[in-house]
């Protein structure tokens, strides 16, 4: 069973976890009208740091703008809330979950409701299971497609989007796979249930473009930047499903999933059927940010004690 941390930030104060509750008639519970972030903090040689905190919170504000969810706090106030809740729970390596949602105040779809805001933080290991960062996972292509452009905006990280994510993830688990990969409405590759997708061909990284109904992942952007810094070619392009079977390597990335190698897709081995050399290299570059082996050239490590 899940154990919960002691403290949570809710509407401006830090409360005991059990007291951070909402009403059953909150708008978001019925209509998915929430926006949220997933952020990680890491213990680094220079002290605990929250990875790209400002960029995550910028995305939260962009997501809120799409749905006209009024934000009662500034980005700086939410950054302080994120730091405070990690510290109050005595954490350094943590997963942070800021969420803003339409609360109690109206039942119509276009109701103007007050916005509730919370930030939780807890210790979290590898999202897709123990040992998967080394061993990789077996993935499948989902029978569920991602939502099409201009239906539900994939670039906004809203609670309702994760109905799609749940269909993809639950189908994959039911069939015995570690994660599902969705195709876009075009039939071309999109992303995982909660992760962006990279394929490797001849030493170059290929990733699906933002037009293919993907979240504009911060890990994806970080890996593209780290690769370019290291002289590794990066190509953003549409790819058909069968490229999953042709690729030398495939991996998924996200804040929760970090860099998870994919060792097979639809029962067919990817490359040598284990984490490939460029996947390993990207893991070294990425995790190197947190143990000091990769210089933080872009100011991504935002100190917990700021
Ligand atoms: N796609 C989806 C659908 C996601 O939920 C996530 C996780 N937030 C990602 C991609 C990866 O995004 P990020 O690297 O910003 O966590």
UniProtKB/TrEMBL annotation:
<dbReference type="InterPro" id="IPR033939">
    <property type="entry name" value="BCAT_family"/>
</dbReference>
<dbReference type="InterPro" id="IPR001544">
    <property type="entry name" value="Aminotrans_IV"/>
</dbReference>
<comment type="function">
    <text>Acts on leucine, isoleucine and valine.</text>
</comment>
<keyword id="KW-0100">Branched-chain amino acid biosynthesis</keyword>
<keyword id="KW-0028">Amino-acid biosynthesis</keyword>
<dbReference type="InterPro" id="IPR043132">
    <property type="entry name" value="BCAT-like_C"/>
</dbReference>
<dbReference type="InterPro" id="IPR050571">
    <property type="entry name" value="Class-IV_PLP-Dep_Aminotrnsfr"/>
</dbReference>
<protein>
    <recommendedName>
        <fullName>Branched-chain-amino-acid aminotransferase</fullName>
        <ecNumber>2.6.1.42</ecNumber>
    </recommendedName>
</protein>
<keyword id="KW-0808">Transferase</keyword>
<dbReference type="GO" id="GO:0009099">
    <property type="term" value="P:L-valine biosynthetic process"/>
</dbReference>
<dbReference type="GO" id="GO:0009098">
    <property type="term" value="P:L-leucine biosynthetic process"/>
</dbReference>
<dbReference type="InterPro" id="IPR018300">
    <property type="entry name" value="Aminotrans_IV_CS"/>
</dbReference>
<comment type="pathway">
    <text>Amino-acid biosynthesis; L-isoleucine biosynthesis; L-isoleucine from 2-oxobutanoate: step 4/4.</text>
</comment>
<dbReference type="InterPro" id="IPR036038">
    <property type="entry name" value="Aminotransferase-like"/>
</dbReference>
<dbReference type="InterPro" id="IPR005785">
    <property type="entry name" value="B_amino_transI"/>
</dbReference>
<comment type="function">
    <text>Involved in the biosynthesis of p-aminobenzoate (PABA), a precursor of tetrahydrofolate. Converts 4-amino-4-deoxychorismate into 4-aminobenzoate (PABA) and pyruvate.</text>
</comment>
<dbReference type="GO" id="GO:0006532">
    <property type="term" value="P:aspartate biosynthetic process"/>
</dbReference>
<keyword id="KW-0032">Aminotransferase</keyword>
<dbReference type="GO" id="GO:0008696">
    <property type="term" value="F:4-amino-4-deoxychorismate lyase activity"/>
</dbReference>
<dbReference type="GO" id="GO:0046656">
    <property type="term" value="P:folic acid biosynthetic process"/>
</dbReference>
<dbReference type="GO" id="GO:0004084">
    <property type="term" value="F:branched-chain-amino-acid transaminase activity"/>
</dbReference>
<dbReference type="Pfam" id="PF01063">
    <property type="entry name" value="Aminotran_4"/>
</dbReference>
<keyword id="KW-0663">Pyridoxal phosphate</keyword>
<dbReference type="GO" id="GO:0005829">
    <property type="term" value="C:cytosol"/>
</dbReference>
<comment type="pathway">
    <text>Amino-acid biosynthesis; L-leucine biosynthesis; L-leucine from 3-methyl-2-oxobutanoate: step 4/4.</text>
</comment>
<dbReference type="InterPro" id="IPR043131">
    <property type="entry name" value="BCAT-like_N"/>
</dbReference>
<comment type="similarity">
    <text>Belongs to the class-IV pyridoxal-phosphate-dependent aminotransferase family.</text>
</comment>
<dbReference type="GO" id="GO:0009097">
    <property type="term" value="P:isoleucine biosynthetic process"/>
</dbReference>
<keyword id="KW-0289">Folate biosynthesis</keyword>
């Amino acid at each position: 069973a899940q154990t919960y941390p002691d403290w949570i930030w809710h509407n401006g104060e830090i409360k005991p976890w059990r007291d951070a509750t909402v009403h059953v008639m909150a708008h978001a519970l019925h209509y998915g009208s929430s926006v949220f972030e997933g952020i990680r903090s890491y213990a680094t040689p220079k002290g605990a740091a929250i990875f790209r905190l400002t960029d995550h919170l910028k995305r939260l504000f962009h997501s809120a703008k799409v749905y006209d969810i009024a934000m009662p706090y500034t980005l700086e106030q939410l950054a302080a809330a994120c730091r405070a809740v990690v510290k109050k729970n005595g954490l350094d390596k943590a997963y942070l979950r800021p969420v803003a949602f339409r609360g109690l105040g109206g039942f119509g779809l276009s109701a103007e409701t007050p916005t509730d805001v919370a930030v939780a933080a807890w210790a979290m290991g590898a999202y897709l299971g123990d040992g998967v960062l080394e061993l990789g996972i077996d993935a499948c292509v989902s029978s569920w497609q991602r939502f099409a452009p201009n239906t539900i905006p994939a670039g906004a990280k809203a609670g309702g989007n994760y109905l799609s994510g749940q269909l993809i993830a639950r189908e994959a688990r039911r069939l015995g796979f570690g994660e599902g990969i969705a195709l876009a409405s075009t039939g071309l590759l999109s992303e995982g249930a909660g992760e962006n997708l990279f394929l490797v061909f001849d030493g170059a990284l290929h990733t699906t473009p933002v037009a293919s109904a993907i979240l504009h992942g911060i890990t994806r952007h970080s890996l593209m930047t780290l690769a370019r810094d290291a002289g590794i070619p990066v190509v953003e392009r549409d790819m058909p499903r069968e490229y999953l079977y042709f690729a030398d390597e495939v991996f998924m990335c996200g804040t929760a999933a970090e860099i998870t190698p994919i060792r097979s897709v639809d029962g067919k081995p990817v490359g040598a059927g284990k984490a490939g050399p460029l996947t390993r290299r990207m893991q070294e570059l990425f995790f190197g940010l947190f143990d000091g082996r990769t210089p933080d050239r872009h100011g991504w490590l935002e100190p917990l004690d700021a």
